[in-house]
Each structure stands twice: as C-alpha cells, then as structure tokens.
Amino acid sequence: MLHAFLAVLSDAAVDTVKLIPFLFVTYWLMEFFEARAEGHSTRLLLRVGPFGPAAGAAVGVVPQCGFSAAAASLYAGGLISTGTLLSVFLSTSDEMLPIFLSEHVPVATLGRVLLAKAVIGVLTGMAVDGVLRLRRYGDDKHIHDLCDNEHCGCEDEAEPAGLRAVTRSALVHTLNITAFVFAISLVLGALIDWAGVSAVERVLTNRPVIGVCLSALIGLIPNCAASVVITQLYLSRMLTAGQMMAGLLVGAGVGLLVLFRTSRHWKENLKFTALLYASGVAWGLLFELLHLSF
C-alpha cells in the first residue's frame, strides 16, 4: 500500500514539475507584454486572425501537455479565441508520442496520427470560431480577470510594472497553479491506480460506439495517465482507431484543470468542456463509420 502511494505521489510530482517552465514563461510573457502595451496584449495572438486555430494546432501537436496548460492560461487572459484553445486541446498528443516511440510504432503510422490530430484541430477550431463570429459572440475576458482570481497584486500597479514586479506576479501565478495541479493530479492518480487498467479494459473492449463515448470520457480526465491508458489499450489491440482518437483528441493533460483554475467564467468553462467532448466523440464516430485506421 505504501509503495503504491509513493508511486502515485512520484508520478504526480513529476507530471507537475514538467509544467512549471511552461507556466512560468507563459505568465511572465503575459505580464511583460501587458505592462508594456498598456492593455493591448489581448491583440497579440489575434493578429493571425482566423488562422489562430492553425497556429494552435501546430503548437499543440508538440508532445508536451504543458502547452495545453499554457494555452488555457492565455485563453483565461483573453489572448486567444475559443477555437484556438480547442485546436490546441484536440491536437496535443500528451503522452501518446513517447509511448508510441517506446513501443517502436512505425514512423509513418505515428506521422499519420499526429497529422490527423492536427488537421482535426484546425478544422474544428476554425469552424467554432466561424460560428461564434456569425453569432457575434465575443469574449469579455482580460488578463486582469486572471490577476483578480490569483490575487497576485499586479492589477494594482498604477504604472507599467518593472521586470521585478512582472517576475513576482508570474511567479505567484505559477505557484498557485502548480499547487492546484499537483493536488488534483495526486487524487486522480490514486483513483486510477485503485481502479486499475483492467477495469478500463472491461468497459471499452468490443463496444465500438459506446466505446467511443466512454474513451472520450476517460480522455477528459485531466491527468497524463488518461492518454497513457488509452494509448496502451490501442497498442494492445483492445481499442479501435476511432475509440483511440476520441480519447486522445479530448485528452489535453492538465489543460482543463488550468482552465477551471484560471478562468472565473464557470458556465463558459463547462460549455467549452462539453464542446471538447462532443468534438472528440464526433470525430471518433466518423473514424468508426468509415472504418479508418492507421
């Protein structure tokens, strides 16, 4: 029992430590540009216009769940659109790539999976942003909302902050999010360890349509262990390509954790989560319907 707990504790600590550089750099840049641009930092990433989701998918496909956490923070600060965040979440490969490489999956197969996730991220993100523009829906988020939530004190500065103040605020943001992610990752890791991979196998195996929906639910678990389980089950031929894609498209590591921690718009966060889940299920079912594989 003690050995299992220490293993879960170690995994949670490692997963959290990996995020720290991404979070700190992201928050530091956000604070720096906000201080220098006098409130115009929200236009920084919007310069790519409707191609924001394409840029998001290109960044998200890099095998580090830290990018999804960074994107969630940018979204909470009003720097990127809903479609761009969605494209990052859908394209991010999380722990899939390291597992594929360790299992000597052919490079061509790996490339097709990554390309499919990136293309799906771009198409879905652009479609969502297009619909939101037609409905004239606009985000009212701002970086100061993020500061209000974290109580870092940077919103109280009357003049543009110096490097010391910027660094302090970024550090406070990073420490708050790191502590939150570690606590939740520890709890989720313990639950997954208690349930066991065999329980997941029994639920998903030989259930094509239901398996897609259930795999996407597992993918929503904001922990890198979710992508590990889904990838391993696929490599063991217990999941179809559609089921795997549904779970891995939805899985964005701790991105959802960071989104709910940094954004005060709870209803909007829940709607985004539902949209993410629906997107993963829809694409997974399409793979099943067309009998697509890699």
Sum this structure up briefly.
The chain is 73% helix and 0% strand. The protein is mainly α.
What does this structure look like?
By secondary structure, the chain is an all-alpha fold. The chain has one domain (1-139, 171-290). 73% of the residues lie in helices and 0% in strands. The chain has 14 helices and no strands. α3 (66-76) runs antiparallel to α4 (82-91). It is globular and about 60 Å long. The protein starts with a helix and ends in a 5-residue tail after the last helix. The chain crosses the membrane at residues 69-90, 110-128, 177-197, 209-235, 241-260, 272-292.
Proportion of helical residues: over 70%
Low-confidence stretches are: 38-45, 155-160
Question: Using only CA atoms, what is the Rg?
Answer: 19 Å
Main sheet overview: none
Please identify the oligomeric state: single chain
Shape, per Cα inertia axes: globular
In percent, how much strand structure appears in the residues?
under 5%
Number of strands: 0
Mean pLDDT: 78
- How do the SSEs run, as a string of H and E? HHHHHHHHHHHHHH
Number of helices: 14
Distance between the termini: 39 Å
Number of domains: 1
| Class from secondary-structure proportions | mainly alpha
